[in-house]
Write a structure and sequence with these properties.
Helix content: 10-25%
Strand content: 25-35%
Largest sheet: 6 strands, mixed
Shape: globular
CATH architecture: Alpha-Beta Complex
Radius of gyration: 17 Å
Order of helices and strands: HEEHEEEEEEHEEEEHEH
Distance between the termini: 53 Å
CATH topology: tt1808, chain A
Number of helices: 5
Number of domains: 1
Structural class: alpha+beta
Amino acid sequence: MSAQPGPAPALLTADEFWQLPDPPHGGRLELVEGRVVEHMPVGERHGAIAAELVSVIRNFIKPHGLGRVDVETGFRVAARPDTVLAPDVAWRAAERVNAPLSDRYVEGAPTLAIEIMSPEDREADVARKIELYLDGGAERVWIVRPQNRTVTVHRPGGDAHTYSARDTLTSEDAAFPVPGFELPLAELFAEA
């Protein structure tokens, strides 16, 4: 006699998700199509690359008044079922920044979402996140692969290009409306 499957767990809304306690081990939670996904705390290399990205992007956008940089901020990128993603680093163009800042999730996708791959990340899960960000209105999604020393830049419409440590990302790759941004990937991965 085979066991009968139990009832499917109820899908959570973003408001219900907001009420959940923090994971006891640290890390972070995301809500993907109404289901909670737990992520373990990141390693040293992951953190160092995220810190470098925040610094480089902030140093470019701040003097140009281009918006703000966010770190692990929750973005509600889809509704019914709700999806709340927290990219490692994100940039929101000035017109996407709320005033005053909220203590809740940001409605809509960031202009640029950056996900740094950890060794345990599954490609299928990352591909789904890219789709959710772009469907939610992101103009660019960067997938940083420290072990490969590459960054893949995804654009709406399915266009994607992978850059290696010998390449330099530019304003176009980040969807910045002004030229002049340059991120040599050899520098990004220097300590990775």
